[in-house]
Design brief:
Blueprint: E1 2-10, E2 13-21, E3 26-30, H1 37-45, E4 52-57, E5 60-64, E6 69-70, H2 73-76, E7 78-81, H3 93-101, H4 113-120, H5 135-147, E8 153-157, H6 165-182, E9 186-190, H7 193-199, E10 202-207, E11 210-216, H8 217-223, E12 225-226, E13 229-230, H9 231-238
Parallel strand pairs: 3-9, 3-10, 7-8, 8-9
Antiparallel strand pairs: 1-2, 1-4, 4-5, 5-6, 10-11, 12-13
Helix pairs in contact: 3-5, 5-6
């Protein structure tokens, strides 16, 4: 279970986000560019400190301004996948995959190396360097590296934004399998309606720094409006 209620002022822009997610599926944080989506997951990850509020996952509190709790990023054990793979260029794919895993106590690991390699279809890449990978392959390796830290939560910040349509269609099915295969909750940031509809069970809609709607993806994207422009219209414009 994910419980988030955070606020932060960034110059003239303010973040005010509150939502609860009880499932282990994929929850999208959706909105226009500049809506505050990345700011929210950066605060959840511990990369940015909220001015006030609370963040808890599965009953464990990671931030609480009233109680003075602020667990450092490296102790939160949240996987974070960025728009680019951010792989270590001097390491092989195998060494990239196991880099974070080695920092996790064996007793706390619930994700197996062979399981990740098989699911993501990267067994033939293990001895390559990142420079020899396609964009889609790099993102699959980045996903695998995060999974092998046995995360309590997986944060994905527009992980397909840098890929062309062919590479996106290559990676999307792998992301869709993750909640079932590993029972890890995923927060997936995107402004792509197609991605959200393909992957997410639930959606948190953001506009101008605030959460404006929360609910099942299909129903929500059909009715919510942001700044007077309906998401149904945005979907038609993308098609």
């Amino acid at each position: 279970m994910l419980d988030v209620s955070i606020r932060k002022k960034q110059g003239a822009f303010s973040i005010n986000a509150s939502f609860t997610d009880k499932g282990a599926g994929i929850t999208a944080i959706f909105g226009r560019s500049g809506a505050g989506k990345t700011s929210v997951i950066n605060m959840i990850a511990g990369l940015v400190r909220p001015d006030e509020g609370r963040i808890s996952v599965n009953g464990k509190t990671f931030f609480d301004s009233r109680q003075g709790i602020d667990i450092p990023t490296h102790r939160r054990r949240f996987g974070y996948i960025f728009q680019d793979g951010r792989l270590f260029p001097h390491l092989s794919v195998k060494s990239n995959l196991t880099y974070g895993m080695k920092l996790v106590r064996p007793s706390e690991r619930y994700v197996e190396f062979d399981q990740v390699v098989e699911l993501l279809g990267i067994g033939h890449l293990l001895h390559r360097r990142p420079s020899k990978l396609s964009g889609g392959e790099k993102q699959r390796v980045a996903i695998g590296r995060s999974l092998l830290t046995s995360p309590q939560l997986l944060l994905m910040d527009e992980p397909l934004a840098s890929l062309d349509e062919e590479r996106k269609s290559e990676v999307l099915p792998f992301i869709g399998q993750l909640p079932t295969a590993f029972a890890v909750p995923i927060l997936y940031v995107s402004h792509s309606v197609d991605e959200i509809l393909s992957l997410a069970d639930r959606a948190v809609i953001m506009d101008s720094g605030s959460t404006v709607a929360i609910g099942p993806t299909d129903a929500l994207l059909d009715r919510v409006s942001m700044n007077g422009v309906s998401v149904r219209y945005a979907r038609a414009k993308q098609a």
